[in-house]
Amino acid sequence: MRKTLSQGIVGTSIVAIAVWWIYTSGPHDDHFYVAVTAMATVAIAVATIWAISAQVATARSVAGVQILLQIMDKFDSDDMVAKRDRLAMLLVGNSAVLTADGEAVLDFFETVGHLTKKNSLDLDMVDNGFSLYLRYYWTALAPFVRERRRTYSDPTLYEHAEWLNETLCRRERVAGRSEDIPPQQLEEFFRTETKVLVPR
Predict the structure, then answer these.
(1) Which of 11, 33, 101, 114 sees the fewest Cβ atoms within 10 Å?
(2) pLDDT value of residue 95
């Protein structure tokens, strides 16, 4: 972004120098000076818009990082850690019910997916921070989501979480890695999750 901003400043400077050289290079009629002035004004306006766009993009990037840090803090908060721990223990035991803790985790990833889809969060950073958790939790909870969709006749329920999971799985395929999670590996993840979250 800094490079783009610098390019805009350099471009404006070049236009200013060119206009100065034209004005001082020799006598010209009035129409010529009017035309040159008009072109210079347009060029400066374009360069200014370019510089402002770069600043806006930088501001959005910084805001995205701040939002991501806040979301990561929430994911690791005492309240969410307790919910993840209880949910992980239920999933290890093959629970047949989607509890409030499961809904809280799904709601969390629904928010992350929505913000990522709207480009408020950088996909690379989301991939780095949440890919492992989302893929395992979604694999375990997807049957409950499908059941809720049928129950409430709402195919859009947790659609952003599903979109994010599919997007991250697609990245796994492109990288030549398997997106499938065997049942034994899934169970081991949740056993490890309970040990890491709340040491016993």
Answers:
(1) 33
(2) 72
